[in-house]
Write a structure and sequence with these properties.
The protein is of the alpha+beta class. Among the domains are: about 10-135, no CATH class; about 150-205 and about 220-260, no CATH class; about 405-510, no CATH class. It has helices at about 10-15, 90-95, 110, 120-135, 150-160, 165-170, 175-185, 195-200, 220-230, 230-240, 245-250, 270-280, 290-295, 310-325, 415-430, 440-450, 460-475, 480, 495-510, 570-575, and strands at about 30-35, 45-55, 60-65, 75-80, 80-85, 105, 135-140, 205-210, 215, 380-385, 390-405, 510-515, 520-525, 535, 545-550, 550-560, 560, 580-585. The chain has a 9-stranded mixed sheet with strand order 5-4-2-1-6-3-7-8-9, sandwiched between helices. Strands 10, 11, 12, 13, 14, 15, 16, 17 and 18 form a 9-stranded antiparallel sheet that branches. α4 packs parallel to α8 (about 195-200), α15 crosses α19 (about 495-510) and α17 crosses α19. It is globular, with a radius of gyration of 27 Å.
Length: about 575
């Protein structure tokens, strides 16, 4: 029970009395609600006032960026004299941010927006980019103290305050391992996996980060990455000598997961680029996997209303059609993650509710320079009357005839190294059905197995990587792995050997090596079957695997085919003036 007296007004009454559809000013589409968090100290109940403001008047306020938490765990606060329930996690955040001696004006989505009003949510979510951009500061709440988080922040400050040489010496100190472990836990917090965080922080003028009783500036937090990059070899030697995955997390997780860059009217990234980079992030509402990114994309003016009355299927189909129609490319269909879409979703439409099991699959979707399997041809695409069928033009390269075993990353990094090595060995035996065993074939095999290339954490020259990996591929391990007998421990491998396999494994994840009828080797989705077709589609940067079905095709996913990724097959097809086919994908 709240000690302070409160009225019996319902939540609906609170928002109805502060309607954003004010008849006195119906022409202002930029109205929103701000809360005034009243001063107090524990154990006093949280009290706030809710008022309507307009972005057109440039009000002073701070915006909160946080994790909602379990929606079933609710705690009451007093809002405009009435009880209003909020999540326990938000309650903890507001208690931390409440001043003892003065009020604090905040924008907090869970309170400022009537979450039960779909029409209001649709309009207000469209304003969120401007709301965070107009705030004097964005307050990032990572959560309460946990996992020795104070040690992580102390390590960040220590590293920021020393030179590169001294940092190397600092890393060797015995107590630093505990601090780096704490930093790993900080970078793995759920906050960094929220899709809304990207817009909330990217649009901010200034950011301050809070974790329990501690706080740190966004600038100091981000500066740690340059330092870690410079000392990564020392980290591998003195701290994580048998765990390249932890080094990868330190270099790429936490704030780095947001892949920030200041946006402006002339440099908004494409919606597809943002969806690709952040598809493994979480949202409470599946629609927000898309809606959270529209406002900081080049589609912000053309996407249309962020309609919360639309179904998940219709929203994702609308998104794919919008991207294809505006970009004149088919690259959006290549985001398929080969594990089945939600019911009712066509195979060419990405299911943004899916997440990666462990690591993001990088190679094919993040290649620089980008692939161009169809040369510079634009997509010649149309949609069926239902909107769920995609008609496109292209041609068939060949049919799949032989397949290697599928490979998936597991949750145990040492096991991943051995599993990846076993997959490489089995794929190599398949590959040798089409190619001789020589240095040129070895290089080609690694290009195919890794989708063209890989980017190791350690700086190992490419020829040395080939030698290292094939020394291991040729070692007598397949029988042990296939028979499930104890395989040699990954600890017996050297740092560079583990790193080479680890780097390759991230690109092999969710894939298998296949051979076509004419002995073409390619990296394909794990569920590719014999008889599937390797195709080039106009406007698609990658070859794709299609599965024939009566009067239409199913999309299996994108593929890497060595020697045709930059339009070679397309150009030959054009020179020979062969006819293009029309494919209906459903």
């Amino acid at each position: 029970m709240l000690k302070q007296s409160s009225s019996t007004l319902s939540t609906g009454d609170i928002y109805e009395s502060l309607s954003l559809q004010d008849s006195r000013d119906p022409q202002d589409p930029r109205k929103f609600r701000l809360i005034t968090l009243l001063p107090g100290s524990d154990p006093e109940a949280l009290q706030c006032l809710l008022n309507v403001a307009s972005l057109n008047t440039n009000p002073n306020y701070e915006a909160l960026s946080y994790v909602w938490g379990d929606p079933k765990e609710k705690v009451p606060i007093i809002c405009n004299g009435a009880e209003l329930e909020i999540t326990r996690d938000l309650h903890i955040a507001l208690r931390r941010l409440r001043h003892v001696d003065r009020s604090r004006t905040l924008w907090v989505d869970a309170i400022s927006i009537d979450q039960k009003n779909r029409n209001e949510r649709s309009v207000q979510v469209g304003l969120m980019g401007d709301i965070y951009a107009s705030a004097t500061i964005v307050l990032v709440w990572l959560g309460p103290e946990c996992g020795q988080s104070p040690l992580a922040l102390r390590l960040i400050r220590d590293l920021n305050n020393c030179s590169a040489d001294k940092c190397t010496n600092l890393i060797q100190e015995s107590e630093r391992k505990t601090q780096f472990d704490a930093l790993l836990r900080l970078f793995r917090r759920y906050y960094w996996m929220r899709v809304w965080v990207i817009q909330e922080v990217t649009c901010a003028k200034k950011v301050s980060v809070f974790c329990g009783k501690e706080s740190i500036s966004w600038r100091d937090l981000n500066a740690i990455y340059d330092i870690l990059e410079k000392v990564k070899d020392s980290l591998a030697k003195y701290v994580y000598h048998d765990d390249p995955g932890s080094i990868y997390t330190l270099l790429s997780a936490g704030p780095k997961r947001l892949l920030l860059g200041k946006v402006s009217s002339d440099n908004y990234p494409s919606l597809l680029e943002l969806l690709w980079k952040h598809h493994y992030k979480f949202s409470t509402d599946p629609l927000d996997k898309v809606y959270a990114l529209v406002g900081i994309s080049s589609s912000r003016e053309t996407f249309g209303l962020l309609d919360y009355g639309r179904s998940i299927q219709d929203t994702y189909v609308h998104t794919a059609k919008h991207i294809i129609s505006t970009s004149k490319t088919l690259d959006v269909i290549c985001v398929k993650e080969h594990d089945g879409n939600i019911d009712g979703l066509p195979t060419w439409v990405p299911d943004w509710t899916r997440f990666e099991a462990k690591y993001p699959v990088i190679g094919l979707h993040h290649r620089r320079p980008p692939y161009a399997a169809a040369g510079g041809a634009v997509a010649d695409a149309s949609f069926s009357e239902s909107g769920y069928g995609l008609r496109i033009t292209g041609f068939i390269i060949d049919a799949v005839k032989d397949r290697g075993i599928p490979f998936h990353l597991e949750n145990d990094p040492p096991s991943n190294i051995l599993l990846a090595l076993g997959a490489c060995q089995q794929w190599w035996t398949i590959f040798l059905k089409a190619y001789d065993d020589n240095p040129a074939s070895q290089k080609r095999f690694l290009r195919v197995a890794c989708g063209g290339d890989w980017a190791p954490i350690y700086d190992i020259h490419s020829p040395a990587r080939v030698t290292l990996l094939f020394d291991l591929i040729n070692a007598p391990m397949p029988e042990q792995i296939e028979s499930e007998e104890p395989a040699p421990k990954s600890e017996l491998l050297g740092n560079e050997q583990r790193q080479v396999i680890f780097s390759a494994s991230r690109l092999m994840h969710g894939k298998r090596l296949v051979l076509s009828s004419s002995k073409i080797a390619c990296l394909a989705p794990w569920d590719t079957e014999d008889g599937d077709l390797i195709c080039i589609l106009l406007g698609c940067s990658f070859p794709v695997i299609l599965r024939p079905r009566d009067d239409h095709y199913l999309l299996v996913g994108e593929a890497y085919v060595d020697g045709i990724m930059y339009g070679e097959a397309f150009n030959r097809h054009q020179m020979e003036k062969e006819a293009l086919e029309t494919f209906l994908i459903q």
